[in-house]
Design a protein that fits this description.
Helices cover 39% and strands 26% of the residues. The chain has 193 residues and is α+β, with helices and mostly antiparallel strands. The chain is built from two helices and eight strands. The N and C termini lie far apart (89 Å). Strand 1 (86-91) and strand 2 (96-103) form a beta hairpin. The chain has helices at 4-26, 31-82, and strands at 86-91, 96-103, 110-116, 125-131, 137-140, 150-156, 159-165, 172-176. The strands form two sheets. Strands 3-2-1-5 form a four-stranded antiparallel sheet. The chain has a four-stranded antiparallel sheet with strand order 4-6-7-8, with helices on one face.
């Protein structure tokens, strides 16, 4: 049998346990709080998706520009090593560059190569070719000097970059541009980054 003090301790213990269970139950979140948190998370996810898509377009633009600079440098190097002219033909309709008499990536073979910028939406494309002789092609002689200078503008969405070819020294460089507004047209004066 329980003594009077043991009974009172058991009652106190049971009351404490009941109060703890009630507090745990009261510590949950209301439906309104959950909806508010989900709304904030949805807004943040939407903003993040837009920023990610914009960043992806910028990366595609600059990657296409860097690849084109690399291929033109390879064309120039091939011309110097073989002491023969190497030519690049730019086709804005097909969004491609055809390289004639260029060293292949496999090592030593010299041949022709075509580079296609993708035709999918959101992919790089030639927006404008601006060569001094208006030919749409450029040749490097056996000394690595170009037949003419000029620029190629590559665009993806609102991002542009320009490949510049200097006719005086044969330097090829990539100029990054800031993001263009929807109505803004690209200009020829750029700041190099």
């Amino acid at each position: 049998m329980m003594t009077k003090s043991q009974k009172s301790r058991a009652i106190i213990q049971r009351d404490r346990t009941n109060r703890l269970h009630r507090r745990c139950w009261l510590k949950g979140y209301t439906l309104l709080e959950l909806i508010a948190v989900l709304a904030v998370m949805a807004i943040l996810a939407g903003v993040g998706t837009i920023k990610f898509a914009d960043s992806l377009q910028q990366h595609r633009c600059f990657a296409a520009g860097e690849r084109l600079v690399q291929e033109l440098e390879n064309l120039k190097t091939t011309a110097v090593l073989t002491s023969q002219a190497s030519t690049a033909f730019f086709d804005t309709q097909a969004n491609s560059v055809q390289l004639m008499n260029v060293r292949m990536p496999d090592g030593g073979a010299i041949g022709d190569k075509t580079i296609l910028l993708s035709q999918e939406s959101g992919s790089p494309f030639f927006e404008r070719l601006n060569f001094e002789d208006n030919s749409g092609s450029i040749s490097f002689n056996g000394y690595g000097m170009p037949s003419c200078g000029g620029s190629l503008v590559i665009r993806v969405g609102q991002h542009c970059c320009t490949v510049l070819i200097d006719s005086r020294n044969g330097a090829i460089r990539l100029v990054h541009r800031a993001k263009l507004d929807a109505q803004e047209e690209p200009e020829d004066d750029d700041e190099e980054r």
